């Protein structure tokens, strides 16, 4: 149940960010839920592999390279989902940072309840 609630909250955050950011577009609510689901899958499967493979770069940049990995995950989701469009690396980076902030705020509200 908690996973579904987090999925819906992520979809809401994706919709809000698509309205705010001019470089990100989403077609409808169903696409937002699919984006949230695909991001959850990519973060669970692909991201740990990328983190391990790029560990030296992450250490050299004091963890800032993780932002590039997050942007790559967003661009992968853009590639897989037809109703979701991100204009480039810059918008993917901004989108991933803001999505992380929104998710942490929404999930902290969820933990308090």
Automatic annotation (TrEMBL):
The chain crosses the membrane at residues 28-46, 53-77, 89-110. Pfam families: Phage_holin_4_2 (PF04020). It comes from the Bacteria. InterPro entries: Phage_holin_4_2 (IPR007165). Keywords: Membrane, Transmembrane, Transmembrane helix. PANTHER family: SLR0284 PROTEIN (PTHR37309). This is Phage holin family protein. It comes from Aquimarina mytili.
